[in-house]
Amino acid sequence: xxxxxxxxxxxxxxxxxxxxxxxxxxxxxxxxxxxxxxxxxxxxxxxxxxxxxxxxxxxxxxxxxxxxxxxxxxxxxxxxxxxxxxxxxxxxxxxxxxxxxxxxxxxxxxxxxxxxxxxxxxxxxxxxxxxxxxxxxxxxxxxxxxxxxxxxxx
Length: 154
Known about the structure:
Blueprint: E1 35-36, E2 43-44, H1 47-83, H2 87-119, H3 124-141
Antiparallel strand pairs: 1-2
Helix pairs in contact: 1-2, 1-3
């Protein structure tokens, strides 16, 4: 149904013009006009803000790889510590370790899903920034991390 005759004009909600509204592309694009990244407040309005946003996305993806590495190193060190512990103290210590591992796991999943939402802007520049960040993050932090992904996303 054609709604062009319904008098919506070029005004968005709250009286601001369409020129400043976030675009919601559901198809792949390289266009950065009115690009918003996950949040309405992360609105790319200029070439400078695009460049800073892409750098921030690269860094965010790198931090995700650092978090994965940190989690695996923590798990390995705690497994060694628990193995050296007397049996009577091991159960209680193992429960604390498991709680921390669960928190790290939840944080990794939250982070991965947030990066997936960033990727799902369907903007080519943003997608490349996430991938470059994953590459650089793995290059810097991935010495002890398997290259095979454990999560379904990111």
